[in-house]
Amino acid sequence: MSLLHLAILSPFLLAIFIPILYKLFRKVHTGWFVLPLPILLFSYFLSFISITSTHQTITESVPWIPALGVDFIAKVDGLGLLFALLITGIGSLVVLYSIYYLAKDKEKLNTFYVYLLLFMGAMLGVVLSDNLIVLYTFWEFTSFSSFLLIGFWYDREKSRYGAQKSMLITVFGGLSMLGGIILLYIMTGSFNISEIIDQAAAISTSPLFIPALVCILLGAFTKSAQFPFHIWLPDAMEAPTPVSAYLHSATMVKAGIYLVARMTPVFASEGLWLWLVAGFGIVTLFWGSFNAVKQTDLKAILAFSTVSQLGMIMSLLGLGAAALHFDDIDNSFFGAATAAAVFHLFNHATFKGSLFMVVGIVDHETGTRDIRKLGGLMNFMPITFTLAIIGTFSMAGLPPFNGFLSKEMFFTGMIRVTELNIFNFETWGMLFPVIAWIASVFTFIYSMILVFKTFTGKYQPEKLEKKPHEAPMGMLISPIVLASLVIIIGFFPNILSNSIISPALESILPNNDIDVHISFWHGFKPELFMTIGVIALGILLFLTLPKWRKVYNIFPKKLTFNRLYDSGLEMIQHASNKLTKTYMNGSIRSYLVYIFAFFIFILATTIAVKNAFTFDTSNISSIGFYEVLLALAVVIGSISILFVKSRMTAIILLGAVGYTVSLFYVLFRAPDLALTQLVIETISVALFLLCFYHLPKNRNEERNRFKLTNAIISIGVGAIVTVIALSAHSNKVFDSIAEYYVENTYTEAAGKNMVNVILVDFRGFDTLFEITVLTIAALGIFAMIKLRMGGKKKNENK
Amino acid sequence: MKTNDLILQTTTKVVLFIIILFSFHIFFAGHYTPGGGFVGGLLTSGAIILLMLAFDMKTVSLILPVNYIYMAATGLLFAGGTAAGALLFNVPLLTHAFGHVDLPILGDTALHTATIFDLGVFLVVVGVTMTIIQTIGEDE
């Protein structure tokens, strides 16, 4: 166990002590106990920068399940470190923010911080594990802790709905990812990512390649809220705002991005990966930004915005993968697309985190998040307003903020797609820059809505629950830190390039030397004009928003993915309920029909498939007069039971059949059996008579009604058993072991009645338990008759 | 009208002992001739049932103050004890021992632990049948 492992597991360890600390120190906000840990971890991970920036990695291994090749391998490389810094850095800020956001005496802070720490540890585990099974374990841990955090206010129905939805979707993806991991293991014989990457060439020729690719991508897309799995993210906004800021903007939703980036060296050699990732990314980008404009809830806007930005990162990663796929084109350029992805990943975490916190402040100070009720808050909350401006302008891609730089790089990437010349890409490839541009226009619009509808315009005090005022300083620290990062990176982007982005690129695209240089000014390139176009059209559309808002009404409300999810869930429930009701009808008669029909079916098929029916008359003994007579008696007796009217007759006939059977035993020289059968038959007939004497008097004795199914099934069972008996008799392979008993009954067991000797001596073990069975039966009858508590109660009620 | 069961009761008094003797015979001879604990037990309980038919259940329980559930349990104990007893002699479960023993009064007698096992079966069978009959018979 190295220090690195301890660092990954430390949030789990601290989570154990949080409830104790909460109970012991009721006067101190529990968040203060949590805060030091992420800060400590952040500074610990900062110390790795010097190692990764020289393109070295740190690997520490602890055996977990060595027999299955599952070891807890912690590996720090550029990509993992970037995420670890995001998780711990924003984690510290979120914890600080939550201390002021969540009231000490109203909320269950112990559970909140336990969940949050679980999540933090799980997320660190996801990004720093080199073993896929360990990664998957932590991956599901993030799903669970996210579920718990979304449902934090579990007394609200919407929270529970959102938590369930996110759980179902992400666990669905998680399980399919597990399938992908197992397929990868089958192909390579290893769970370790670094070893899998070494065998990438062999994987791409395997028939399991495409299933594995699709399974892994499903996991990544569901987690990262890609189209059409994005629907859980807006509903997850029911979580407390610190949770939304942390999980649903900066960290968890980027786990899918991380997975795609991590798996790029494995899968990117095939074009399918490239087109799937880039295609789904660009669709998500458009769909998210398009839908964000129509939202009226601030957090819903941010949720769709997150969806859209994640789509943008995803499409850049997809394009970046082209660097591994095509050898003939200029690699440095596609490397730059990946660099843009990493850069934007970082930028998005900063501005989206701060925006969520700003929205949380607005919600906290006014009591609502509805933009129709908000307006004119600028004068009351100047600091919050400034922070919002910085965040949204960066999100919209305006200079001089960091969003501008990544958006420029994004456009560069999209324009160059058209140069790829496979899959008829001259024509279809044109869609990429066009969609990207339109999506950016929408991004601009909702960014403007977010800031201007909230902070400018008419102040409507009558609609607000509280009188707005500036947030306390503690609440503002975190967004201020993030917003200053937005500006600093905007002005000095290259402080990141060598320390963070370049090592991360090294992990995504190994063996490609890419010189990362983010320049603020490209010159008069198409990207610049595209941005100018976005701003111009965006301003125009924002100002005329009320006039074209009706566009959103064109799509009927029934055709949304939420509707599909809801009705799908309902349909599955309904259908399975219906299905169960059709065959589980509660009638024993039907169940017997199923059992016997299956019995006939399975045996008949086996006989037919194996061609097993044989009929051999060579070793049968001769049939005498008495056998025929007795057989006739049994057959007549059994058949008449089916047709007699009165129950009494049926019982007596049953007795007759039983006595005939004992005569058979006499005939076939089994005196012990004959004796026993005689006495037992007498007792059981007597018991039957007893039973039927007690049946209700008013019950009409009617004949059994004829049912065709019953007839067919009973004839089938009889036929199949006969066939099997005949075949079994004709196929005697070995001699009987009876010889041994005949020879040794007297010498070994000092007896002459072989049956009895077998019962008490050779195989006395069976007898021991048969008498146990008898005793249990007697006790059962005794208990059933003597203990009738339920019946007594009923009688009292009457 | 008051019925008189004199003939039945008198016959029972004679026949009962014959049946019991027969059932004991069948039980003890089981190792050499058809019979054994199971049939022996059934016949013994048959004799008791005859007694119940001729007289009534209360009288029978006065004559034979036996708790049949305990009887079945004792039978299980005998059978299980015989089975487990073998373990004391460091041989596998249910290994029987037999031999000729010179007893003071009976002289040279063949003894077999299987008889103890069979006695267990006998007791269980009597206990079980009588429990069932008695429970159902006493039920209103």
UniProtKB/TrEMBL annotation, chain A:
Main subcellular localisation: membrane
Residues of the NADH:quinone oxidoreductase/Mrp antiporter transmembrane domain: 129-425
Membrane topology, as annotated: Multi-pass membrane protein
All residue ranges annotated as the MrpA C-terminal/MbhD domain in the record: 633-697
GO biological process, one term: sodium ion transport
Pfam families xref list: MbhD, MbhE, Proton_antipo_M, Proton_antipo_N
Keywords: Antiport, Cell membrane, Hydrogen ion transport, Ion transport, Membrane, Sodium, Sodium transport, Transmembrane, Transmembrane helix, Transport
Gene Ontology cellular-component terms listed: plasma membrane
GO molecular function annotation: antiporter activity
Transmembrane segments: 6-25, 32-58, 78-100, 112-128, 134-154, 166-188, 200-222, 243-261, 273-293, 300-326, 332-362, 374-396, 430-452, 473-496, 528-548, 591-613, 625-644, 651-668, 674-696, 708-728, 767-785
Similarity comment: Belongs to the CPA3 antiporters (TC 2.A.63) subunit A family.
Name of the protein in its database record: Cation:proton antiporter
TrEMBL record, chain B:
Pfam families: MnhB
Protein topology in the membrane: Multi-pass membrane protein
Transmembrane segment boundaries: 12-32, 38-55, 67-89, 109-133
Keyword entries, A-Z: Cell membrane, Membrane, Transmembrane, Transmembrane helix
Main location: membrane
Domain of life of the organism encoding this protein: Bacteria
InterPro entries: CPA3_antiporter_subunitB, MnhB
Subcellular location per the Swiss-Prot or TrEMBL entry: Cell membrane
Residue ranges of every copy of the Na+/H+ antiporter MnhB subunit-related protein domain listed in the record: 7-131
GO cellular component, one term: plasma membrane
Record-stated family: Belongs to the CPA3 antiporters (TC 2.A.63) subunit B family.
Name of the protein this chain belongs to: Cation:proton antiporter
Naturally occurring in which organism (per UniProt): Cytobacillus solani
Organismal lineage: Bacteria, Bacillati, Bacillota, Bacilli, Bacillales
